[in-house]
Task: structure prediction
Amino acid sequence: MSIIAINSVEEFNTQVLGCEGLAIVDFSAEWCTPCTVMRPEVEKVAENLAGKVTFFSLDAENKDLREVLLTQEIEGIPSLVFYKGGKQLDRLAGYKKADVLEKLIREVIK
Result:
């Protein structure tokens, strides 16, 4: 699977913040229509960029992950947040098509 689900604060801290390369977290929720429409777009980009970027998903409705939402200042979903070496590089909010999303990610990879 090209997108890794984050299910605890500890997983976020070790897998996302501990990722040496570029990590992108998709903050979303099942009830969010833009999130469910965007999910296949994110999956497509994750497949295209496999080996260059590690993709994660985080359910914004999971109460066990509320601390992550607060510390990362997630104010709306869908949000894609880019991390490298434990530091936040950039973020995208709202629906994006796969080609637009991939182009923006490739600019960050440069």
In short: The domain at 3-109 is CATH 3.40.30.10 (Glutaredoxin).
